[in-house]
Design brief:
The complex is a heterodimer.
Chain A (H helix, E strand, L loop, with lengths): L1 H26 L11 H12 L10 H32 L1 H14 L8 H8 L3 H25 L3 H9 L4 H35 L8 H10 L3 H29 L8
Chain B lengths: L8 E10 L2 E11 L4 E5 L6 H8 L7 E6 L2 E2 L7 E4 L11 H11 L4 H14 L15 H14 L4 E5 L7 H18 L2 E6 L2 H7 L2 E5 L6 E6 L11 H15 L2
Helix pairs in contact in B: 2-3, 2-4, 3-4, 4-5, 6-7
Classes of the chains: A mainly alpha, B alpha/beta.
Amino acid sequence: MKKHKYTVISVCSFLIVLIIWQLVTDVFHLVSPIMLPSPTTILKTFWYKLTGGTVPDGSSLIQNILSSLKIALGGYVVGVVIGVPLGIGMAWSRRFELFAKPLFDIIRPVPALAWIPLMILWLGIGYASKVGIIFFAAFISATVNSYTGIRQTSQVHLWVGKTFGATNRQLLFKVALPTALPMIFTGLRLALGSAWVALVAAEMLAATSGLGYMIQISRLLGRPDVIIVGMITIGFVGLLLNTVLEQLQKRFVRRGKKHD
Amino acid sequence: MVEKKQPKVQVRNLTKKFGDLLVLNDISFDVQAGEFLCIVGPTGCGKTTFLNSLTKLYEPTAGEILLDGEPVDLKKHNIAYIFQEYSTMPWLTVEENVRFGLDIKGVEKQKANKLVDEYLDIVGLTKYRKYYPDQLSASMLQRVVIARAFATQPELLLMDEPYGQLDIQLRYHLEDELISLWQRTGTTVIFITHNIEEAVYLGQRILVLTNKPTSIKQAIDNDLPRPRKIASPDFVKLRNEVTDLIKWW
């Protein structure tokens, strides 16, 4: 009953915004539709794009989503596959940390977008350079969180393992990694978020499809309704991807995350 | 105590410095096989450093520790260590926690299952085997740790104030449980505590340590009959004797 009440309150805020929006646009015409189209216009455009409409950017919404996913997931997977082991390695081996961490610490504060010029120079303006930019966005979060996760391993747990005669490898796999797993998953989620955020910027590079491209081109064509449809879609797909990872985390990270 | 053949543990001139700070000062003693040795000392006298040096978790600055006449090697010798802090793994269930040491040692699955069942039963946690540590009370957590240690059938069991965080009633209960486990398994136990009553209640022999830099002040044999009565005159007399040794600084 109470839960119901809260949902109602949340829905109210949405409704109020939508109603005011509709009033200032289509009803009282206080704002020009070139600046801000009405919710009903956006809904119509959304339906049009979703059902395969290709005007004005040349692709349907589904095609754009798939094109964006291909770039975002491509860069994400490479970033995670390199970032997670790198983070674990730096946290676990003092020697490797001394070797790799100074370099990583310099790369870490550089925003993924700052790599755009170099990426174009090195990889051209095709798929590879876009993936490269996403890679940096995902790689940093994946590395940092895996590193921190391993570092949280409790000394006593390591001692328990050692007194039972555990090898270094056993300590890593039976003590440190289980400790770090929740943090590693958090890293995977943050990395996915960063990858998705960097997408629009990556698609500024001579794209012919994709959600970022759709937004860009619609600005030039004066179609704010398509821009907003694109923004909402980016938001929803991002939310969906995050939910998928959350479910995976629930399955793989077992309860009892609390540390004494 | 009558000299037996070879002592189980021989500590020879054990010394540990942290930088310039001398913590353990030339400690030597023997522990006989199957003995229950209690070590008491004032708080902060380096008891934990002592055990950690004994197990090579800290590298001793000087001296050596022999187990059955050989230098301690954690990969070879079967040692279990019960720490002062809660040391159950929060990501493992009760039974997986008890199995942890057996897994590390690569004990064959069927044998491990049997040992886990047996020790879960002994500490009374069979009903809770599928629970996670954050669902258990403090005394249950400590029982999990004790089952985990005994399940590996250690030849040497080290305990560092394992009951320091428990209230007095639970402590009595777990102490009795420990004694019966020790009597049943015949394992050698070194038990560190700052609680004099606990030391007199448990130990066959009591080593009293001095303040830092730590050395052995005195060893006292304790052959009070078990089960011991903490209110009996002999018990009180011995307890006072130990208390006086510790108070003198």
